[in-house]
Amino acid sequence: MTRSLSIVVDQALAAAVRAPSPHNSQPWRFAVDRERVEVRLDRDRVLSVADPDAHEARLSCGAALLNLVVSLRFQGFEPRVRLLPDAAEPDLLAVVTHDGNHRVSVEDQTLADAVFRRHTHRRPFLDRSVPAGIRAALVRAAGGEGATLHFVDAEYVRLTALARRAEFLQAGDDAFRAESARWTRRHAASPDGVPLGAAGPPPDHEGVVALRESHLDPDLPVRAYERQPLLAVVLTPDAGPAADVRAGLAMQRVLLTATSVRVATSFLSQPFEVASTRAGITELFRPLGRPHAVLRMGYGYSAASWTGRRPAHDVVARIVDGEKRNGGG
Ligand SMILES: Cc1cc2nc3c(=O)[nH]c(=O)nc-3n(C[C@H](O)[C@H](O)[C@H](O)COP(=O)(O)O)c2cc1C
After folding, report:
1. What is the location of CATH 3.40.109.10 in the chain?
2. What kind of architecture, by CATH, is found in domain 3-118+310-325?
3. What is the pLDDT of residues 202-240, one digit of tens each?
4. Ligand 1, closest atom to CA 59?
5. How far is residue 222's CA from residue 198's CA, in Å, rounded to a whole number?
6. Which atom of ligand 1 is nearest to the CA of 18?
7. CA of 193 to the centre of ligand 1 (A)
8. What is the pTM of this model?
């Protein structure tokens, strides 16, 4: 690899690892060989209680893949992505090759800039609606990756009931609580997990769906949350591991597009993490496709607290003359 190409790839990998992941578990690995980057699922970092099928982990890898692609385009390279290229290796989620000249567009610049500004916003939103033009842009962002973004409307009551039910069941599950405790309330400098500074203030009344117990800082002053959050669901036409990665690509393009217009975002994942409520949410959205993620969107005051990331040598293996060097392989 020439030096300049290696700088390009390093920058793309630095963008990739800024992707969101449940509890900031960063369940990815990369292997780099000249103009080729492999994106792999790291099984050791899949949340075994909340995510036994690795669905959320593959979503996260899809988000990392989108960041990688966005960064390559921003640097003037044309990426070609093959999803799940090897049936014998199910954890090899994607191979990206890049060559040729890519003419950098305004959208490339906007998305690349958003990669390093996006963060999960666990604070209250204002009761101010997201304009129709922005919603349409978010729908287009998901559509561009072969997925659908659906703004929750008639399904709101049933969806939030599923979220509350899941949270109730998880609260009574010792294994879930232990897993959650392991990954949250970390020190600010922790390279993974969620630091206490990223937690939100306690709501001023019960029943707020915006925030999970484990992402709440009880020492902050109580605050009023938005009366009804704007929720959007990412869906794909089909199900399975490739659909998970595709949904992750779409989810991340939606998150970056939202960030670029100062719309803050967070996640509402509880219904996907309990078998019975997962069945419920699948059924609820069946007419529209396979649901993968529920996003909360709105306007809020952002005291961004950045979550850490593991250093590149922990997640990247260089392939030199057919052999892997460095960690992560
Ligand atoms: C699939 C998925 C599910 C997530 N679920 C939740 C959630 O239920 N609650 C929450 O507060 N954050 C959730 N997150 C956000 C992560 O905690 C967050 O991405 C991680 O801590 C890194 O922080 P950042 O997004 O600010 O970079 C989720 C992220 C992903 C990708």
Report:
1. 3-118+310-325, 132-298
2. 3-Layer(aba) Sandwich (3.40)
3. 999 887 887 888 888 999 999 999 988 999 999 999 999
4. 1
5. 16
6. 27
7. 10
8. 0.96
pLDDT confidence of residue 2: 56
pLDDT(66) > 60: yes
Ligand 1 center to residue 268 CA distance, Å? Answer: 9
Q: How far is the CA of 20 from the centre of ligand 1 (A)?
A: 6
pLDDT above 70: residue 311: yes
Q: In this prediction, what percent of the chain has a pLDDT beyond 70?
A: 95
CA–CA–CA angle 293, 296, 302 (5° rounding):
130
How confident is the model at residue 190, as a pLDDT? 96
Atom of ligand 1 lying closest to residue 194 CA: 21
* Neighbouring residues of 273: CB distance < 8 A, sequence distance ≥ 6: 50, 51, 56, 166, 170, 176
Torsion 293-50-45-209 (CA) sign: positive
CATH 3.40.109.10 fits 132-298, yes or no: yes
Q: Is the separation of the CB atoms in 291 and 256 below 8 Å?
A: no
Average confidence score pLDDT of the chain:
93
Looking at residue 20, its pLDDT comes to 98
| Cβ neighbours around 182 below 10 Å, total | 13
d(CA 51, CA 301): 31
Segment 133-154 shows an average pLDDT of 98
- Which residues' Cβ are closer than 6 Å to ligand 1? 20-24, 56, 59-60, 119-120, 122, 194, 212, 215, 266-267, 269, 293, 307
The protein residue with its alpha carbon nearest to ligand 1, atom 14, reads 22
- Ligand 1 centre distance from Cα of residue 58 (Å): 13
Pull the structure tokens for residue 117: 């500004």
Q: How many angstroms separate the alpha carbon of residue 267 from the centre of ligand 1?
A: 6
